[in-house]
Known about the structure:
24% helix; disordered C terminus
Amino acid sequence: MRAHSFLGRALALAAGFAVAAAAGAQSPTPSPAPAKPAAAKSAKPAKKAPASEFKLILEPRAMDLLKATSARLAAAKSMSFTAIVGYEYPSKLGPPIVYTSRYDVTMQRPDKLRILMPGDGPASEFYYDGKTMVAYAPAENLAAVADAPPTIDGALQAAYARAAIFYPFTDLLVADPYAALTTGAKLAFYIGPSGVVGGVKTDMVAWANDDVFLQIWIGADDKLPRRIRAMYRADPLGLRHEMELTNWQLDPPVTADAFASAKAQSAGRMPFVAPAPPPKGVKPIVKGPAKAAPIQPAAKAK
């Protein structure tokens, strides 16, 4: 309700400025003001204060919070969480439209990963068991299967290089989240506390490099990331991307069969490749993970 009232006041204020400007434009030309005394003419104008130049800094408190959340994630032998990702897409009307995706993530270091996407949009599933990675489309009952490197980091890089598969929370899954989160940092500062995200107290941190500006909400007590908001420098529309992170479980018991799917194994096969080549002359806003070595599709189980 407060957000709506602030927005209402902002719109009313803007409308007030517009009405005042229109009224001023349509009013009769005012009579010239009386001439000022000679003493007033000779008065020297006050000197303007020099504009303060903003300096990019890496504030220690902000970097310490990023280091703390990275250490918590890196120390977990297994973990699961839910990511609700909203991203804006331009519309012909002008204001962007928001699309939302859900990811249910389970991982076990160093070589097990499962990502389920129930919707919106077509459902999909991704499985990695240390040797093979599988991208499965339940509605079509088709699976793309390929040999994979022996670590989660390598598998994620290979999935991107081979099939343009990328997840917005990849930096939280790798062996060194701190390096992934802070490489190329040009700006980091502590914003302040919050008590309205994820049902817990959080600390807000801003972080930026040459490609992206992030705002991150980190649990004040558990140091787990609860929300991440991003804007990309190369995006001329300034579209926003936001990710809510919930249902955190660190070091839960995980069975080996969690990282495979009988339905995917028996499904029809499709190539483990990107759905379509990128249009000519189009470059990605940000670079993807490091290029992985070529991989070959795994043979269908008999």
